[in-house]
Amino acid sequence: MTLLYYDPVFQEHVTGDHPENGDRILPVVRHLNFVALDSCCRRPAWEPASLERLRYVHTPDYVDLIHHFAASGGGYIEPDTVVSVRSYDVARMAAGAVCDAVARVISGEDKNAFCLIRPPGHHAMPDHAMGFCLFNNIAVGARVATQELGIERVLIVDFDVHHGNGTQAMFWEAADVGFLSMHRSPFYPGTGAADEIGAGAGTGTTLNLPITYGTPRDEQLRLFEREVKRFAAKIRPQLILVSAGFDAHKDDPIGSLGLESDDFGVLTRCLLDVAEEHTDGKLVSVLEGGYNPDALTDCVGIHLEALLTKAC
């Protein structure tokens, strides 16, 4: 079965009328329950990410800053990112879900997992918040895999409409974590050019696929499939992690690359095929963006159905 991570605690990261608010995922939860997709999954209990695990990718001072900023009442910690009184605890639970999913998938408890969590994480930098993100959930999970669980090579694939600049920064010089991002360009956050390939021991372990707005859908899908397969053959991962942002959908109010809901099924099945070839199916998917609740509901349902089909 597929592991599914969701908890009402994620509604306690209160952001008001900010685009990244709890209402974006409530329709997803209701839909998964209505069509009984959630009952087809295993729903583990888990613990918040420990301070030690957060510090694999974040500076101790930054982790402390989030704690104290939330405890003092919160507010805008940077121009795009809201913190409320409970945000530190909720963000630790979000990162903890990814850590738990990684541990269970690596152990063979289940083949794959989906973490329906918030706040998102792929813009969070080692020492500051950015772009709705507090802790870099997927980066923490990758370092749990390599630091604690004996995994020598991880591949992170990010198909959010925005470049995962925080994830890229954390593994820029890492030889053991490959990072591939397909994203709209030029667009926020202004990074992710094709010539950004990593440095030092990590030279060549970063691959960016910038997409110009208006590029036909079929062209995007062909590029993704070709480059993911090629890059995975180079990295030879033992675990695949997915930053699953659904804001490249044509109806997203923040991003959009013109993709239809079914296109995310194509992306998902491509990643599952690559996981089958390289990792014995071991894949953990983590929600990032997606700000049209109806489109997000459709996309997550399609994504989860594909995960379940492969896990059976």
Task: Write the SSE topology.
Elements: E1 3-5, H1 26-34, H2 51-54, H3 60-71, E2 75-78, E3 81-83, H4 87-107, E4 112-115, H5 137-148, E5 154-158, H6 165-170, E6 177-184, E7 206-211, H7 217-235, E8 239-244, H8 261-278, E9 283-287, H9 293-311
Helix pairs in contact: 1-9, 4-5, 7-8, 8-9
User: Which percent bin holds the helix content?
Assistant: 25-40%
Structural class: alpha/beta
Q: What is the CA-based Rg, rounded?
A: 17 Å
The tally of beta strands, per DSSP, is: 9
Report on the biggest sheet. Answer: 7 strands, parallel
Give the amount of beta strand, in percent: 5-15%
Give the SSE order as H and E letters: EHHHEEHEHEHEEHEHEH
Low-confidence stretches: none
- Average residue pLDDT: 98
Distance linking N and C termini: 6 Å
Please tell me about this protein's structure.
The structure is a single chain. The chain is of the alpha/beta class. 38% of the residues lie in helices and 14% in strands. The model has no long low-confidence stretch (mean pLDDT 98). The strands form 2 sheets. Strands 1-4-9-8-5-6-7 form a 7-stranded parallel sheet, with helices on both faces. Strands 2-3 form a two-stranded antiparallel sheet. It has 9 helices and 9 strands.
